[in-house]
Write a structure and sequence with these properties.
The protein is α/β, with parallel strands linked by helices. It has a single domain, classed as TIM Barrel (Alpha-Beta Barrel), CATH 3.20.20.70. The mean pLDDT is 90.
Length: 193
């Protein structure tokens, strides 16, 4: 876990807005320790996959739900009933325009949409949607849409131009050798160069 925390610190130092903890195989105690370390790594939002209990206990900014999670509507209602801080985020992964609309209807704060491009980790979710479908989803919902799936330095700006509020890019974040290199990459995305 030390190597992962170091990657998180590097990403935070480079200016990454959010860090999503996706470590599904960790025991609850180890996951809680990891999330607490991530929360204290710097000034960025930390989002935890599925485990709202861990997210709340660690002081994370929110929880991210997948297709196999508890229904987003139930989580949002539970959070808004005073069981979570008012600014606690609930996000949802979706793989269709209908899924994005459902996430919005359920009260999610944001949605991940993808895969946009081909990537080994998203093969179970079907063929890549492409940039045109991303643009259609971004126009169809009012909540922020985060593009995911096969995003790297060569295509990230295209996703932002299509209307995505942000990108999720595991390999791009983990591959730079240091915070300076990652910061340069992120600056290029923000300026469109």
């Amino acid at each position: 876990m030390d190597a992962l925390i170091e990657k998180i610190r590097t990403a935070v130092a480079a200016g990454v807005d959010w860090v999503q903890i996706r470590e599904k195989d960790l025991q609850a105690r180890d996951l809680l320790a990891l999330v607490r370390d991530a929360v204290t790594a710097g000034s960025t939002r930390v989002i935890v996959n599925d485990r709202i209990d861990v997210a709340l206990a660690a002081g994370a900014a929110g929880v991210h739900l997948s297709h196999a999670s508890v229904a987003a509507r139930e989580v949002v209602q539970w959070c808004r009933a005073g069981n979570a801080p008012a600014d606690f985020l609930v996000g949802v992964s979706c793989h269709s325009l209908e899924g994005a609309k459902q996430a919005e209807d359920d009260g999610a704060n944001y949605t991940y949409f993808g895969p946009i491009y081909e990537t080994p980790s998203k093969i179970p979710f079907g063929a890549p949607h492409g940039i045109d479908e991303l643009a259609a989803v971004c126009k169809a919902v009012k909540i922020p849409v985060i593009a995911i799936g096969g995003i790297d330095e060569s295509n990230a700006a295209e996703c932002l131009r299509a209307g995505a509020a942000g990108i999720a890019a595991i390999r791009m974040i983990q591959s730079p050798p240091d915070a300076h290199a990652l910061r340069k990459t992120l600056e290029k995305l923000h300026t469109g160069n």
